[in-house]
Amino acid sequence: MSDADLVLEGGGVRGLGTAGAVIRLLEEGYTFQRLAGTSVGAIAAAFVAAGMGAEELREVMEELELSLIPDRDRLGRWPMPGVPMLSEGLSLLRRHGAYQGAWIHGWIRDVLARKKVTTFADLRRQDSGDSAGLAEDQKYKLVVMATDVTRGRLLRLPWDYHLYGRRPEDQSVADAVRMSLSIPFYFQPCTLTHCGTGQDSVIVDGGVLSNFPVEVFDRTDGEKSRWRTIGVRVLPDLPAGAAQLFPLTALKLFPLLQLLQEVMTTAVVGNDQSHLERSEVRERTIAVDLPDVGVTNFGLSLPERQEAVHRGWQAADAYVRRCPTDPR
């Protein structure tokens, strides 16, 4: 057994590769003390923080019905789900996202419930060896990245719930993950209301500001880390990753949105590239190569899904051979 922290990058359907990598690390005997994730990375991070092992994570990913994730909205009484493209276009205009994101939210909630995890209180951790300056709001097994576009800031949930007058331990884990999944223009954004003032904030995908927060658990008290941090990436560097990040066909109907798509691509991938160029970051990162899997390619066949998971498994296998677990 070897302790480690784990940080998982966002990447939509490419998260199948993330799952494969995590499965291999769990098979190797890693025990993850803390996990952080953005977007789809937050899903796998939440499941492992809830106590899933390698085989259970594999089974859960196999049961996931990808085709149900793009859930068309019903605007008023019109049966919009039966009108492809038109539904997405109207949803973009009226609700700022082509799809509801309700199905994946419910699925995450149900899977976590099987592990008896509902709120962050179920993921509380106490460790006397933590950094001396670690706040009480930061003593949780899971950190989920989201972006508050109203306030213009990165959210690290549950660490930042106090900014909204909320107690971290009372907040839903599934709700936090759904906020992190709000790919701009693809899924409808979420709303987070301040309990004291009633002010609403619009929340979108954490990848807008931090798609790969590999440094989130680094010590700040000058002491040596007690264990390693492992990161898993599934997006290629720019410019290679640009075409796959937001391939939403409906955006072609709106030239302005195409420009915004390019801006978002740079924000999500480019924001992390500066620190990824540092050798110490590359050394603790598992990069999964998924050349044929688009971020929103929810129509993958079963063999294609299995291949994506296997590629992640192989990438992590190469890592554990290069960096074996610490002897105990």
Automatic annotation (TrEMBL):
A motif (GXGXXG) lies at residues 10-15. Residues 6-218 form the PNPLA domain. InterPro entries: Acyl_Trfase/lysoPLipase, Lipid_Hydrolase, PNPLA_dom. A motif (DGA/G) lies at residues 205-207. Gene3D superfamilies: Cytosolic phospholipase A2 catalytic domain. It comes from the Bacteria. The active site is at 39 (nucleophile), 205 (proton acceptor). Keywords: Hydrolase, Lipid degradation, Lipid metabolism. SUPFAM superfamilies: FabD/lysophospholipase-like. A motif (GXSXG) lies at residues 37-41. PROSITE patterns: PNPLA (PS51635). This is Patatin-like phospholipase family protein. It comes from Streptomyces ortus. The lineage of its organism: Bacteria, Bacillati, Actinomycetota, Actinomycetes, Kitasatosporales.
